[in-house]
């Protein structure tokens, strides 16, 4: 019997089956398998404790019964009972070897992981900037975190639909069209379109103060756009097109390819149905001409809240808004894409909006008997400087994302050039691109997304610590072993490898098997930092192994098993870094 990719899940299945045979499963026994403190084993099952407490039994006796029932596990594990009733599992060296032997490529790791979301479709809504505006540093997180989540979901078997939900509709387009018709600089629009659109919007805004005839004119432009005036529609389309082309340059650098760019405007003709169905199901009600939804079970969204804050399905002037389009979006993703899961990645400040949205969708779909997908709002904190304040340019302006990525590459180029002055410039540029962009991505992903992201060039570009350069360097270092020994890492000579023996070999082998747990945790919680932490620990285990155990030795069996460990470290690091959206390098 060979061990599957996810050893913890395998233990869970076996222990449940054992409990079933003992008649405990029906009484709610949950094995509670988790990764153990390495001092005790590889995995630990704590479930006997809670169960025995509830059933007023002796936990150690319950644990012992289960261990006796699951005797087949002792083929792969050393089992021990500890404390009041923990079961510890330590993989036997031969089983470690079997697992590592079987998981020999990125493809096979993927096959192993793909059970978690097999046959599921997930729509991920991320980046989603507003058109006619520059992407700035605040837009970085949604793009970087969203892409990592897409890759994790796809790796675990889901069909992933990447949807860029552009903010491409709204009252601002009246002012923009007003200004465009008067002051557009065609040349500027060619060279830096978004810069020019931002300039025009500012002009338009300044020229249309509250109560002015100019504002009336801007509003007429908006109505013309909304009622399909060909000239205004063409202008609006042009704004979207040039914006998207500029965004695309950023996406290219971050390795992001969207399947769809279904912005707010796409839902224009889909909001009527939302109004109708929310009215007919009596979820929405009239409030001074607006159509709103209250959630009376919720302290802040109830009609009795201190400051009532209903979900605004349709505004009093009849216009749709952010809530209307997001409701229509949820329905479209469910019906058209047949989504099993929907993930929206935004700043934490949109928390209330999505809480109200999801509450409304749940009731609406239940009332209409629509299938409800899993709904996740993936939030993240602000980007701050090391002083804890919002990140700004030296003169206090917002940092444009393009400038930030340029700076990352420049800084990485200086580093690479200092370290490897002899490499040809073109190669140093290439390395700097991967290291620079990778550092920005990794620094964002390696911190728990719920916290503020403290942006520090020095930390993210450091060659040691939990950073992209450290991990990319670890990859290059493993590759160099193969290069120096003139071996092809695509076909490592590992036949005849024996089971790990030395303390460092064993520790590294155990770490390799834990890749499955890191993937499981990062995907279940939609938190890529768990994967980052794992990769950092894996690189550490590899360093310790490399320092202690010479790889290229004469004994063919020892050499083969050490090369096997090197190779599996290489594919695991590469697979993990690719899941985070990084490009890995042959040398650094
Ligand atoms: N355009 C919005 C913003 O820039 C983000 C949209 C997120 N997605 C959504 N379905 N609301 O804040």
Fold topology:
Elements: H1 7-21, E1 33-35, E2 43-45, H2 47-55, H3 59-69, E3 77-82, E4 86-91, H4 93-102, H5 106-113, E5 121-125, H6 138-155, E6 159-163, H7 172-183, H8 186-191, H9 193-207, H10 213-226, H11 230-254, H12 271-280, E7 285-287, E8 290-293, E9 311-314, H13 322-335, E10 341-347, H14 351-368, E11 374-380, E12 383-384, H15 401-419, H16 425-446, E13 453-454, H17 457-460, H18 468-484, H19 503-513, H20 515-524, H21 529-548, H22 556-579
Parallel strand pairs: 5-6, 5-10, 10-11, 12-13
Antiparallel strand pairs: 1-2, 2-4, 3-4, 7-8, 8-9
The chain binds arginine (ARG).
Arginine binds next to helix 13 and strand 10.
What this model shows, in words?
The protein is α/β, with parallel strands linked by helices. Among the domains are: 7-91, Arginyl tRNA synthetase N-terminal domain (Gyrase A, domain 2), CATH 3.30.1360; 170-257, no CATH class; 401-579, Isoleucyl-tRNA Synthetase, Domain 1. Helix content is 53%, strand content 10%. It has helices at residues 7-21, 47-55, 59-69, 93-102, 106-113, 138-155, 172-183, 186-191, 193-207, 213-226, 230-254, 271-280, 322-335, 351-368, 401-419, 425-446, 457-460, 468-484, 503-513, 515-524, 529-548, 556-579, and strands spanning 33-35, 43-45, 77-82, 86-91, 121-125, 159-163, 285-287, 290-293, 311-314, 341-347, 374-380, 383-384, 453-454. The strands form 4 sheets. Strands 1-2-4-3 form a 4-stranded antiparallel β-sheet. A 4-stranded parallel β-sheet has the order 6-5-10-11, with helices on both faces. Strands 7-8-9 form a 3-stranded antiparallel β-sheet. The longest helix has 25 residues, at 230-254. It is flat and about 85 Å long. The two termini are 41 Å apart. The structure holds arginine (ARG). Arginine binds next to helix 13 and strand 10.
